[in-house]
Write a structure and sequence with these properties.
Layout (H helix, E strand, L loop, with lengths): L2 H18 L18 E4 L7 H7 L2 E7 L4 H12 L8 E7 L4 H7 L6 E5 L5 E6 L2 H8 L2
Parallel strand pairs: 1-3, 2-3
Antiparallel strand pairs: 2-4, 4-5
Helix pairs in contact: 1-3
Amino acid sequence: MNLGMLRGAAVALTLAVAALQPAAPSFAETSVAEEARARLIQYEPGSTDLEAIAAQEEKTVVFFFASWCPNCILTLSELSEKWSQIEPDITLVIADYDTETGLKAKYGVTYQDTFVLLDSQANGVKLWNAGGVAGLNENTR
């Protein structure tokens, strides 16, 4: 598997999550507040500023995904299917496990399918593997 496949999987998750976003309210619904949703960002080396994201967002989590990893694929599938169940104050950043060696070293990641919770200065404060939506919600409380 290559970077193109990873990007394709991340794009597919992004599109699936976007499809879950509520449509623009009609005139009759404008008084009803839109439901808050978690944010999804695909990590792009050189353009994704984790420090800025962590400083701005309430909870930032980096997910290290490998396109060849069955558990990673299952995790992405579950996230896509159950995106509405993810706590709305979470921003999930998906990073390529195979190419982001500097990011892995910074956060002490040695295994794909790893989540890293960041503090407001983008320091890793908690690491865990797998767990899907329930694990993501539980480990960020």
